[in-house]
Amino acid sequence: MSSSQTQTQTMPGYISDKDALLARLRRIEGQVRGLQRQVENETYCIDVLTQVSATTKALQSVALLLLDDHLGHCVGHATGEDREAKLAEASQAISRLVRS
């Protein structure tokens, strides 16, 4: 079972930012579609790479917002062993973000 399946059914930390997150993700989806069109239209490589960079930065921004919400809400409200587990989760998430 994954860690997300073993979580208790509580509100996620990003719930107050949900609409903003969804709006950002929809914009990113549009950016990815734009990338597909650029490749289909055989756009100049550097122009495609510029769009890839912008899309990557947008995804990183979403990831940082989610991480901030996790630290403030999920870790901030946890106690005892649960707090240690939440900190370990956050550390692993940061590690994955840094490697990507």
Query: What is the C-level CATH assignment?
Result: Mainly Alpha
User: What is the count of DSSP helices, taking H or I runs of 4+ residues?
Assistant: 4
Number of domains as seen in the coordinates = 1
Number of beta strands: 0
| Major sheet size, sense and barrel closure | none
Average the pLDDT over all residues and give the rounded result.
Answer: 86
Uncertain runs? 1-8
Helix fraction bin: over 70%
> Any idea of the CATH topology?
Methane Monooxygenase Hydroxylase, Chain G, domain 1
Structural class: mainly alpha
Radius of gyration: 17 Å
What is the H/E order?
Answer: HHHH
Shape: elongated
Taking the alpha carbons of the first and last residues, their distance comes to 24 Å
What percent of residues are in strands? under 5%
Determine the CATH superfamily.
Metal-sensitive repressor, helix protomer
Looking at the overall shape, the CATH architecture is Up-down Bundle
Describe the protein.
- With about 100 residues, the protein is an all-alpha fold.
- It has 4 helices and no strands.
- The radius of gyration is 17 Å and the shape is elongated.
- The chain has a single domain, classed as Methane Monooxygenase Hydroxylase, Chain G, domain 1.
- Helix 2 packs antiparallel against helix 3 and helix 3 runs antiparallel to helix 4.
- It starts with a helix and ends with a helix.
Question: Which tags fit this structure?
Answer:
Methane Monooxygenase Hydroxylase, Chain G, domain 1, 100 residues, disordered N terminus, 0% strand
Summarize the structure.
Helix content is 80%, strand content 0%. It contains four helices and no strands. The radius of gyration is 17 Å and the shape is elongated.
